[in-house]
TrEMBL record:
Pfam families: ABC_tran
Organism whose genome encodes this protein: Accumulibacter regalis
UniProt entry keywords in alphabetical sequence: ATP-binding, Cell membrane, Membrane, Nucleotide-binding
Superkingdom field: Bacteria
Any one GO molecular-function label of the UniProt entry: ATP hydrolysis activity
Keyword Disulfide bond: no
Name assigned to this protein: ABC transporter ATP-binding protein YbbL
Organismal lineage: Bacteria, Pseudomonadati, Pseudomonadota, Betaproteobacteria, Candidatus Accumulibacter
Keyword Transcription regulation: no
Residue span, ABC transporter domain: 4-205
PROSITE patterns: ABC_TRANSPORTER_2
The gene coding this protein: ybbL
Length: 205
């Protein structure tokens, strides 16, 4: 059963889009810079005005309060947002030490000042912040865009474990065709406002 379903979804540059992402499935979207990938994810997260509908299971976005929808259908933006001084100010509970280790971050990272964090450290910490809210759907906007090869692999592995264990639906925007080959069950090219399916592999991973 699809956990995320888009019906006639239209943003400023994209649509109408029909798309379903199943529980435990990873769907990748790529396309030229400026083709509207970020705006599509923001519309699904109900952060920008849009027409058409997004559903979580059978429930339309319009039936849920915006914070509730965004907690379940969570966007990890390409540029993470921070407001407090310490990393720990942004987490309601302690970060799972195993997750930090899996991402190559030390346990003390929770006590770091944001001002000292590198872009790549911020990107990994922002991903953990989102995962800790246990969303049913993950919308990922170039989640490894600032990372070296090893950190990229670590993020890919953590996300695969998380998706499989919790049957999360993942919609992943990436510019990296090798990454899409590694992580996607299906992939789509976003061009001229529409999604064209390119790849489908049996769901055995
Ligand atoms: N607030 C806005 N007002 C007007 N135009 C916007 C706004 N935000 C984005 N755009 C335009 O919409 C188009 C799509 O932007 P979007 O950020 O979705 O592209 P993208 O496919 O994610 O690109 P990239 O791969 O470079 O991140 C771009 O031409 C961008 O300039």
């Amino acid at each position: 059963m699809p956990i995320l379903r888009l019906h006639q979804l239209r943003t400023r540059h994209v649509g109408p889009i029909e798309l379903s992402v199943d529980a435990g499935e990873c769907v990748c979207v790529h396309g030229a810079s400026g083709s509207g990938k970020t705006l599509l994810l923001r519309a699904i997260a109900d952060l920008d005005a849009h027409a058409g509908d997004a559903y979580l299971d059978a429930q339309p976005c319009t039936m849920l309060a915006a914070p509730e929808w965004r907690r379940s259908v969570a966007l990890v933006a390409a540029e993470s947002q921070w407001w407090g001084e310490r990393v720990g100010d942004h987490f309601e509970t302690d970060i799972d030490a195993g997750w930090l280790q899996q991402l190559g971050l030390p346990e003390e990272a929770i006590d770091w000042q944001l001002s000292r964090c590198s872009t790549g450290e911020r990107q990994r910490l922002a991903l953990l912040r989102t995962l800790m809210h246990e969303p049913a759907v993950l919308l990922l906007d170039e989640p490894t865009g600032n990372l070296d090869q090893e950190s990229t692999r670590r993020v890919e592995e953590l996300l695969a474990d998380y998706r499989r264990q919790r049957h999360v639906a993942v919609l992943w925007v990436s510019h990296d065709s090798a990454q899409i080959e590694r992580v996607a069950h299906r992939s789509f090219l976003l061009r001229d406002g529409g999604l064209a399916e390119e790849k489908r592999v049996p769901r055995c991973r």
